[in-house]
Amino acid sequence: MAGASWAPETDAPVTLRDVTLGRGPVKVIVPIVGETTAELVDAAAAAAAAGPDIVEWRVDGFGSAQPDAVLAAAAAVVDVLGGRPLLFTFRTAAEGGARVIAPEAYVALHAAVIAAGLVEAVDVEHRFDVAAGDAVLAAARAAGVAVIGSAHDFAATPDADALVALLTAMQHRGFDVVKAAVMPHDPGDVLALLDATWTMASAHRATPVITMAMGELGALSRMAAPVVGSCATFAMLGRASAPGQLPLAELKPILARLSMD
Length: 261
Ligand SMILES: O=C1C[C@@](O)(C(=O)O)C[C@@H](O)[C@@H]1O
Known about the structure:
By secondary structure, this protein is of the alpha/beta class. It has a domain at 8-147 and 218-255: TIM Barrel (Alpha-Beta Barrel), CATH 3.20.20.70. The protein is 43% helix and 18% strand. It has helices at 16-20, 37-50, 67-81, 103-116, 130-143, 160-173, 187-203, 219-223, 225-228, 248-258; strands at residues 27-32, 54-58, 86-89, 121-125, 146-153, 177-182, 209-213, 232-236, 246-247. The relative contact order is 0.14. Belongs to the type-I 3-dehydroquinase family. Homodimer. The active site is at residues 152, 179.
């Protein structure tokens, strides 16, 4: 069981379990993308060498969505990660990803990856087919794999109350961590995202939260994670998986400077 690899030693690698417990400083997650296993392994090796806390495989960028091919690639990635935890994310086209997938295929793929014990956590889109999402949640829970529930709005930023309502509804659904990414159009939108994040971190502590405002305007929100209570933030190495991600080497010192721990 991937989740069972968590151990509380202080020098143990950070795991997604730490994120689900909101433990310690803000975690930095670096996404990797590759169409072939060779590209993916190169990206994973570069990511492991750069030293993020967690690596996210954006599976929607891989050449195949067949469980066997994906499992083989996942094993190759894990081999080069040297114990660094892996977050498995299939971002659907509806939420800014590269592929469309049917609900049955979504469940089959995630169930296979969870059963293989290769990943620490999986991302489940809150707005994807509800029965499929719930099936993945149940499989993950049974295997001790953490689930990050996610919701992306590439068009706009809901107001702070609407964001809190969305994130608390996601908590009630049973996700271990809830994540929202929005598109700001003015500084007020960025402030709304930060406001909602702090409301979640202070008044709705049932689960940790991860938030970001995307695009250039939103870059501040990626740096502000330690101040407002986002338990993790995404940084890029080479290629961004969403607009506005900062290079890992730039973001790390800023997070350390702003850290409240
Ligand atoms: O959900 C997220 C957050 C993200 O969209 C970002 O804006 O950094 C990047 C994605 O790879 C990840 O799955």
